[in-house]
Specification:
The chain is α+β, with helices and mostly antiparallel strands. The chain contains nine helices and nine strands. The chain starts with a strand and ends in a 17-residue tail after the last helix. GO terms for molecular function: methyltransferase activity.
Length: 268
């Protein structure tokens, strides 16, 4: 591993690794903070892994004569109920806080408008306790939310204004059916893409030495409220430890040695 100073002035550490994910052999150089950081510091690693998973899915679809139909300007899915982990909720709230004016105030106003609409509809209490909603009722809650037509606060001109930083679950929602069907998910005409691994679920399960278990899921329109009303108790660990935790969850093993492979991907 090699150390250096990152853009923010903090020390970073880099390593070249080779591993296998989604039936793809990958070589990459990972750079993470060397000091103690929250788990959100390794989101770039998860974004990289997600891109590999989706690229593999696209290749499989092409072999079947199909393709992903999602395109910029098609914002129907941006009115779906999007649950994110606490890690991403705090990361996204940080993005909003760092936005220059007048953009920041415009985005905050859209969050406020979404909260007001949810309060008016009577759905806000269910969303505030999203993890407490019984599994058999979750689809109904999702459809009720979609029926309100609330656009994601980050949606501008039917495109994601934070596309490079969008949540993992948004990256994973892909369809091969005509995008027109996405405006009516209850009709069951949407044909989704099956992925071999859902990193959005993994993110909520990163090992937590405090023993609190998986972090709560937060409905995306509620992230600003959540961050402002819940103290940040996410653990801080050295960046390489968080990366190792990610690989353990993906593969059942740890971070591969330089030039090595993930333990869970070794051929028998």
């Amino acid at each position: 591993m090699a150390g250096s100073t990152g853009e923010g002035g903090g020390e970073t550490v880099s390593a070249k690794v080779a591993f296998r994910i989604a039936d793809s052999d990958v070589q990459a150089e990972l750079t993470v903070p060397s000091g103690r950081v929250p788990p959100g510091a390794v989101l770039p690693v998860l974004h990289m892994l997600e891109a590999i998973v989706i690229e593999a899915a696209e290749a499989r679809l092409e072999g079947e004569g199909r393709r992903i139909a999602c395109r910029a300007g098609c914002g129907a899915c941006c009115r779906q109920l999007v649950p994110v982990s606490e890690v991403e909720a705090r990361h996204l709230a940080g993005l909003v806080a760092a936005m220059p004016e007048p953009g920041r105030s415009a985005v905050r106003a859209r969050f406020d408008a979404a909260l007001a609409r949810l309060a008016e509809s009577g759905l806000i209490d269910a969303l505030r306790g999203l993890d407490s909603v019984p599994r058999e009722e979750r689809e109904a809650v999702g459809l009720a939310y979609f029926s309100l037509g609330i656009p994601c606060p980050f949606l501008e001109d039917e495109s994601c204004s934070i596309h490079e930083q969008r949540p993992l679950v948004c990256r994973e929602f892909l369809v091969t059916s005509d995008p027109v069907h996405c405006s009516d998910p209850a009709a069951a005409r949407v044909r989704g893409v099956q992925l071999p691994v859902h990193l959005s679920n993994l993110l909520a399960r990163l090992p937590d030495p405090s023993g609190r278990g998986p972090s709560p899921r937060v409905a995306l329109p509620l992230i600003m409220e959540f961050v402002e009303t819940h103290p940040d108790e996410l653990p801080r660990r050295p960046g390489p430890e968080w990366v190792d935790a990610v690989f353990r969850l993906v593969s059942g093993g740890g971070l591969p040695a330089p030039g090595g492979e993930l333990p869970g991907d070794r051929a028998p």
